[in-house]
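tool_call predict_complex ligand=alpha-D-galactopyranose
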Amino acid sequence: MISTLLSRPQRGPDGAPVPRLLFGADYNPEQWSRKVWEEDVRLMRAAGVNVVSLAIFSWAHLQPGPDAWDFAWLDEVMDLLYENGVGVDLATATASPPPWLTTAHPEILPVTDRGETLSPGARQHWRPTSPVFREHALRLVREMATRYADHPALFAWHVNNELGCHNVYDYSDDAARAFRDWLRARYTTLDTLNHAWGTAFWSQRYGDWEQILPPRLAASHPNPTQQLDFKRFSSDSLKDYLRAERAVLREVTPDVPVTTNFMVMPGTKGMNYADWADEVDFVANDHYVVPGPQARDELSFSANLTSGIAGGRPWFLMEHSTSAVNWQPVNLAKRPGELARDSLTHVAHGADAVCFFQWRQSAAGAEKYHSAMVPHAGADSDLFRAVTALGDTLKTLAPVAGSEREPAGVGILFDWESWWASEQDSHPTSLLDYHREALDWYSALLSLGVRADVVTTGADLSRHRMLIAPVLHLVPAGLAKDLTRYAEQGGHLVTTYFSGVVDENDHVWLGGYPGALRDLLGIRVEEFGPLPAGQEVELDDASTGGLWTDHITVTAPSTEVLAHYRTGAYAGRPAVTRRPTGGGSATYVSTRLGADGLASLLPRLLEPAGVMSELPAEVRGSVETTVRRGPGGRFLFLVNRTDRAVTVPGVTGEVLVGGTDADGAVLLAPRGVTVLRTSTD
Ligand code: GLA
Ligand code: GLA
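tool_result ok
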């Protein structure tokens, strides 16, 4: 359990650690004087902070020159935090190389696909594959690990920071060398690579490994499999770097857990976190609200997917914001109630720690307008009062710590390989957005009040009566078999346009789309009919499609047509089909219906799958529910998605957070969250 990893866990009468939720922030004391440190720990106590991430950007302070070290200030901070009951998630401090290093070794700087070298002066200006960077960084990691191995405040190691946030794609000569090694390991022979990359096309046949380059800026579209492999390689290179730091940490401090903060968000598709999850001792995530009509849904989706990446086990919210960020075109402040609701939505989806970037708002630097727990205005502020109130709420929710998610009837499959492959260039449309399609299904389920788990490839599919796999574009033979077995054994599979089209080499499954899933779906698509931006087609069930249409022929006698196109090039032909498969079914949705259209379609798919909303009809759409179950009992989270008060009748249990009305019905404040313990086992 994450909280019991703290070196100073709270203990019960029997001496055993008492579970609690963790609460805190990134702490950057090097930006402040010692006098401020004293105030910091006083305010941390007032707010109930029990953990901080420390030294993330401290390299230049800790190692001012190649052979100069200064740990005295960090020793002092570590002691001060320990004395005040705050555990430390200690960074290895390697995220931002100091000026002396980039001056002496400019060859560690990343290079873009256009051959431009990125200058130092911001942060994360290092090549994931640079041996020189690695040598210097691992030296620092060893110093940190050795110095703080026995410090009682240390509870976990925080490798680097947001690996790949700014440097996932590097096209340097180091990257070229490492890419060739990676390709040799994947393909063994050049013949295999030439086949996989389809180099018979455009005279690309390789006769020597040394001829292979990263997909740098070229005269036209670079080879698609080369591009896909470069994405795999880039994710793997950062994973390999994570493992390199971890190896040093495990050698010096074998008992201290190691993590790093993922960024499960629409804009950070470069890192295949599903594939990284086993590399950390607990999953940690950073999330920032993306403004727009689906802002709340996306937050929930991210938290839900993080839970999927963590295999349903509790995870650590390493960063989110108390209010505005500084890196969007317009940085919106959070409205009253949103700070707590955002945090508790993460807890609802399995977070056992709620942390922010950052503790104290910077007075200088690029992030001085980014909110923090202690704002520029100081502790006498509504924001700090909201922070303190959240600290109290999290104390009340201590029994939730350690609980896992109770599987939902519906799973949404989120697959990095399909994300990468479906959005490559030279495709039928450049408008396809993998993440948005997945989010639309999720929004539709939220609007129907149906609980869903976002899961990743490799998860146990049989846990869900319905599995929605939007734009599952890249389907190797093994995955096609798994999905077929799932549907034949009673599962209800739903998939969409541009799914099942290519194999792991990005080669088209021939004979009609969606080749890998054609038999299972009982349909055959002869041609894609993508739509120009803004153009729509009507379906005969009163819904409207955009982005995509397909020329579909039904091939299995049992395939039902749930909706036809009414307008457009394929008017009269099937648009949505469903093939029963024994106890299960396989549904195909050939156009982008959007969240509203999916919400109209879904009841027809959920009913035969036997999945229903667990909420009373009048609050569906207004309230999001999740269930966590663990040693402390079974917990039902009810999150008010609206700005008005909502009464939820018919739900009973011990109210841990939130309130009830005079009749005992759960009363959700505007943007409020209620947590009930519905059973103690
Ligand atoms: C040009 C080229 C062809 C092919 C087509 C595609 O005509 O000569 O090789 O790339 O464009 O539209
Ligand atoms: C990321 C970084 C932090 C900070 C925040 C700002 O999450 O890890 O250092 O820059 O973004 O939103």
